[in-house]
Amino acid sequence: MAVELRPPAARPDRPPRRPGLGDTLRQAWREYRSMRTALVLLVVLAAASILGSLFPQEGLSPQRVDQYFTDHPALAPVLERLGMFDVFGSAWYMAIYLALLGALVACLVPRTRALVRVLRSRPPRGGDLARYRTRASFQTPAAPDQAMAAARRVLRRNRFRLASHEGELAGEKGFLREAASMLFHVSLLVLLIGLAYGKGYGYRGQAAIVEGETWANARVGYDSFSPGRFFGPERLAPFQLRLDDFTNSFYPNNTPREFASQVTALDLDGRKLQSQRVAPNRPMTVDGVRVFQSDYGYVPVVRVQGKDGKDLVAAQEVLTLRDPASEWSTGAVRVTRASPQVGLELTMFTGLETAPNCPGGAPFCNDPRLVRPVLVVLAYQGDLQANRAQSVFTLDRSRLELLGDRPLLLGPGQSRKLANGMVVSFTGLKQYSVFTLARDPGVPVVAAAAGLLLLGLVPSLYVTRRRVWVRAAPDGAGGTRVELAGLALQGKAAFEGELARLAQQVQRGTLDPPDRSP
Amino acid sequence: MSPADLATTSDTLAWLAVLSYVVAATLFGLDFAYRLRWLGVAGLTVTVAGLAANIGAAVTRGLAVGRVPWGNMYEFSIIVGIVTVSGFLIWVARRPEIRPLGVFVLLPAVLAMALGGLVFRVPAGPLVPALNSRWIVIHVAAAITGSSVLCLAAVFSILYLVKERFERRQRPPAPPLVAGAAQTADRVEVDQAVARHATIWDRMPSADTLDHLAYRTAAFGFPIWTFAIIAGAIWAQAAWGRYWGWDPKETWSFISWTVFAAYLHARATAGWRGRRAAWLAIIGLATLLFNFYAVNTVIVGLHSYGG
């Protein structure tokens, strides 16, 4: 940030002017772009971010926000009004970082001007060299102008910008520090602009595809869809995805090892565009949209027949919700054509184990590997209330009563009769894969800005700015006395040694005629 | 050796390292308190031996699990020990006079490792699929190095605050013994007398030196931390489809970044230099520790792997 110079004191012969509104505003502006303001805003931004990690966030885990509302019915609405469940999208958070960005711009402008001015001007005269704390001097038999020529060579080799004043050589270096610092700060601005651009014009969504099926990239195909403010659904790229195969595996201790989908992208006419294995950390890019493997689950195929053998539900693929800890899945089948209506609650085990084989004395447990699939069916009858919105994975049991007194266990290919004479069959098993699809047009901007930011950061901390002045005068004994003085703006501790080394190099240079080394 | 043997060897070596660091810290402490040089040199030797055991622990663990040995909090703690201690040794090689500060470097390292071993130890095992990426090498390595170095900077800031307070209380320093010291013929005797009356804090480097040390350390750690965050964002983009999502771990690494950025700015701001800046570094340390210990175990997020 700019070095602030105090305004010159009012001259005594002029009556002191009363400070007007303009002065107050100017003072406020100067205060705003000062480093102190930036510092306070940085600390405030950090403190505000803490809130975002203490409360559950809508964008991150909406279920946990709902849970919070249930647990704290009095407090939650107040917190919601304060934006505590969407801290990073709230107006006050935005106000803090916009104020910080404003301060950044306000201080970058005068800094840029100052840097340009310094770069255009010549290194200034040193004045009285005796007043500098860091000095060095030596005697040499060479003539004064030879000594100055040597000094010029040495300083140039050490990458000083030079200016010759009368009887004095002035050198300056280390502007890279300021330039790099500005690159860092400008990159930070560009990064945030890229972030906002990508958020505004991009989107994110999740879609589930069952093995063997083809999914079209349209708004209706997404289970969840969060578009940016300026994203229109007409901008969804025209393609389809086919899940050819899904595989998952486990380590011997039953922790997940890997899961992957073999995916083929097709255009709308069904022509193959590309085919790839999509796995965690291995996304596929189709037409600017990135497709990520995010989850998977099981799809038992269930058939329900009436007493007369007619199909009430013919080979339905039932999407189930997988519990990642136990690897068993739950789902529901609604037999709306029966009267009274019948609902089936399904629990699908990949490998059902019972008492002696289970840890901790549990009556039953599940082997996550697909070794012994079993479908456990619990039947209900009554009113399914199917016209009301409800989760596809569960039944609304408020108007249902249990049918029969025990659950039915079905292996693949098996059929069982319900208490009312209907027959349920477990006819097949497939898997589905859940993909996150995302388009973020801001990524190239953000990536480039992040790279430049890092590039600027290191020199802005490590390059040191120095000024050096050299004078040479006859010492009265036929030789020359060379004086060096310098000023270090950073890294003052090391400067003493640096100047001494420069003096040594110049001394050696005066003894070493220049024509020997071209 | 079988993976199980390697894992056992690793555990033994890790405890050996902790033990050596405790011994070395004691030796440095005695060197610091009583100016017993030979104890300090012995401390260095023990530190080097401990570092060897520490590296051995990481290598055998890596061989046992067949991947980089920084997949969970326990393994992370072991690497923190390596980074901190080897960084300190490199520094001592360049500036031997800071050797007595070893006690303040080794104790945090010991604490981190012991906590890792007692609370967060998990048996050697493979990683969940989401962590199977070459970015774990880059991102986590940078995060360990950056956070260890920034923690060290804060340790120096704490020492600075203590010493600064001491210096303020000492002013004006006019012990009569020192006044004529330059003229006294038998200087050694005077020095010994001063040394007898001096407290531990006299022997600590000056407040200015500690402040400078803290700044240099933070200026070294900050770019590494920045890189760790950027590398994490690149990985997140590949794994989750977004480079930034305000996951608790991301949020807290951003908070630490902001606080240390404030520290670096404070060092160049009138009215903030010195004590206030040092407090910022200490707040930064608190955010780093919270990020590692609390966010991994208490707060639910995408980074809850190692707890």
Structural class of chain B: mainly alpha
The helicity of chain A comes to: 25-40%
SS-based structural class of chain A?
alpha+beta
- SSE topology string of chain B: HHHHHHHHHHH
The average pLDDT value of chain A, as a whole number, equals 87
Q: Number of helical runs of chain A?
A: 9
Largest sheet of chain B: none
Rounded radius of gyration of chain A (Å): 38 Å
Task: Indicate the multimeric state.
Answer: heterodimer
Largest sheet of chain A: 7 strands, antiparallel
- What is the first-to-last residue Cα distance of chain B? 28 Å
Q: Helical segment tally of chain B?
A: 11
Total E-strand runs of chain B: 0
- Principal-axis shape of chain A equals elongated
* Percent of sequence in beta strands of chain B: under 5%
The radius of gyration over CA of chain B amounts to 22 Å
pLDDT < 50 runs, ≥5 residues of chain B: 173-185
Can you tell me about this structure?
The complex is a heterodimer of chains A (518) and B (307). Chain A starts with 20 loop residues before the first helix and ends in a 7-residue tail after the last helix. In chain A, a hairpin with a 5-residue loop joins strand 14 and strand 15. Helix content of chain A is 31%, strand content 33%. Chain A has helices at 21-32, 35-54, 62-71, 75-81, 91-120, 144-157, 175-201, 443-462, 492-511; strands spanning 134-140, 161-165, 168-173, 203-210, 214-216, 224-227, 240-250, 256-266, 272-278, 284-286, 289-305, 311-317, 321-322, 329-335, 341-349, 352-354, 364-366, 374-382, 400-410, 415-417, 423-439, 466-474, 480-488. The longest helix of chain A is centred in the N-terminal third of the chain and has 30 residues, at 91-120. Mean pLDDT of chain A is 87; it is low at 1-10. Chain A is elongated, with a radius of gyration of 38 Å. In chain A, strands 4, 6, 10, 11, 12, 20 and 21 form a seven-stranded antiparallel beta sheet that branches. In chain A, strands 1-23-22-3-2 form a five-stranded antiparallel beta sheet, covered by helices on one side. In chain A, helix 2 (35-54) runs antiparallel to helix 5. With 307 residues, chain B is mainly α. In chain B, 76% of the residues lie in helices and 0% in strands. In chain B, helix 1 (3-34) runs antiparallel to helix 4 (102-119). Chain B is flat. Chains A and B meet through helix 2, strand 8, strand 11, strand 21 and helix 8 of A and helix 9, helix 10 and helix 11 of B.
